[in-house]
Automatic annotation (TrEMBL):
Gene source species: Streptomyces scabichelini
Record has Cytoplasm as a keyword: no
Single GO MF annotation: serine-type endopeptidase inhibitor activity
Name of the protein this chain belongs to: Subtilisin inhibitor domain-containing protein
Pfam families the record matches: SSI (PF00720)
UniProt KW Signal keyword: yes
Entry's localization field: Secreted
Length: 149
């Protein structure tokens, strides 16, 4: 019985390998979803910061590809967003619910980012109420202002 099962499994694996090895690479590429090429229309964000102090509060427009708008460091902000953008992942996702976060307070600063990035709508809020939220904020610097800790 075991011998028959092993032979069947080996034959199935060999047949699968032959199918994968002989399939043209274009067949795989055609089945993958494609991201739209970046344009100024698809990469436009509004960043509103409050409670950060030291003149960092305000509402800023950020355009990328090419970088522009009223954001104080549009080039670096666009570069950070491009670097962190990955297919199938939400760059602006909230902190994971139930995550293990340090109990530290990063201050009263809050931010809201709205608009469109990579052809998808964005409406994200940021705070600094615990270690997970502080890390999430810090990962978005310089889109968001750099604050202590």
């Amino acid at each position: 019985m075991f011998r028959r099962l092993a032979l069947t499994a080996a034959a199935s694996a060999a047949a699968s390998f032959v199918v994968v090895a002989t399939a043209p690479p274009a067949a795989y590429a055609e089945s993958l979803p494609h991201m739209p090429p970046p344009t100024a229309d698809t990469d436009r964000l509004t960043v509103t910061v409050s409670g950060a102090g030291d003149g960092m509060d305000g509402t800023y427009e950020l355009r990328c590809h090419p970088a522009g708008g009223s954001h104080p460091d549009a080039g670096a902000a666009c570069e950070q967003l491009d670097k962190r953008t990955s297919w199938g992942e939400d760059l602006f996702a909230p902190a994971r619910p139930g995550g293990m976060c340090t109990m530290q307070y990063g201050g009263p600063a809050t931010a809201r980012v709205t608009g469109t990035w990579a052809g998808r709508p964005v409406d994200a809020t940021y705070e600094r109420r615990d270690g997970c939220e502080i890390a999430r904020w810090n990962a978005m610097v310089p889109v968001l202002p750099k604050l202590g800790s």
